[in-house]
Amino acid sequence: MAAKEPNQLIKSLDRAIDILEIILQQENGMGVTEISRELDLHKSTVYRLLDTLKFRGYLEKNEENHKYFAGIKLFELSSLVLNDIDNRMRLRPYLEELMQETQETIHLGILDEGEIIYLDKVESNATIRMYSQVGKRVPAHSTSLGKAILAYLPVEKVINLLQEKGMPAKTKNTITDLEQFIEHLNKVKKQGYAIDDEELEADIRCLAGPIFNHRGEVIAAFSVSAPITRMTEQRMVKLEELVVKYSQKMSRSLGFNG
C-alpha cells in the first residue's frame, strides 16, 4: 500500500530525496541530463538541488565525466543507523531480562541534541504503568536517563546543552538551577545510577544506569520506571544495586572493560 502524501509536502525536499534515491541505484553515478530526464525536472532545478546535496556532503561529483555519486555523509549516516540497530539488538535481551526481574517497564534511551529519545522499551504487564512510546523525546535534565548520560559527559558540554535547551520545571521536583544540577550529576557519577523522583511526571519514579561502549564512552542509558505506589523509597534502595549490575552487564556486551 502506497504511503499517503502529507498535506504539507515540501516539494524541494521531496525532489532532493528522489535525486538521492535514483543516483544510489546507478553504480557509476548520474549526470544532470539523465536525472532531469528520469525525474522530469527542469535542468536548473536539478542543478540547484545537486549543488546543495554536494555542499552538504551527501553527493560528490566526478569532474571528468560530470556525474554525481554518493558522498561520504551518506556512508556516515548509514553507519550510525546500523550501529544503533546493532546496539539495540545486543541490549534487548538484557532489557527483557531486567523487566522479568523487576516486573516494571524498562526503557533504553540516547541523548540527541540535548534531549532524550526513547530508543526501545519493554513494557510491564502491570495495569498501572508509565505512558511512553519509542521515538518520543523528553528533556534530559528531568529524566533519570538524561542524568545517567549527562553525568559522564564533560561539564562544559553539559552546561552548553542545558543553557541552549533550558531547564523548565516539569513538576515541582524538577531541578531547574544549573549549579545545583551539576552538583547532582557529580553524585550520579559517584554512585553509578540516576534517579528521577517525580521530576518528569508526578507519581512516577525511575532509576537509570549508563551504558558505555568499548571506548569507555557513554552512548545510552536504561531505566526502570514505575508509579510511586510500587516504586517506594524502600524498593528504590533495593533496585539501586540491580541497576548498577545491569549497567555493567550491558556495557560489557558492547566491549566495555571498565
UniProtKB/TrEMBL annotation:
InterPro entries in alphabetical order: GAF-like_dom_sf, HTH_MetabolicPath_Reg, Tscrpt_reg_IclR_C, Tscrpt_reg_IclR_N, WH-like_DNA-bd_sf, WH_DNA-bd_sf
Keyword entries, A-Z: DNA-binding, Transcription, Transcription regulation
GO molecular function, one term: DNA binding
Chain ranges of the HTH iclR-type domain: 10-72
Pfam family, one: HTH_IclR
SMART domains associated with the record: HTH_ICLR
One BP annotation, GO: negative regulation of DNA-templated transcription
Keyword DNA-binding carried by entry: yes
Keyword Isomerase: no
Start and end residues of each IclR-ED domain: 73-256
Role according to the record: May be an activator protein for the gylABX operon.
Protein's UniProt name: Glycerol operon regulatory protein
Native organism: Halanaerobium salsuginis
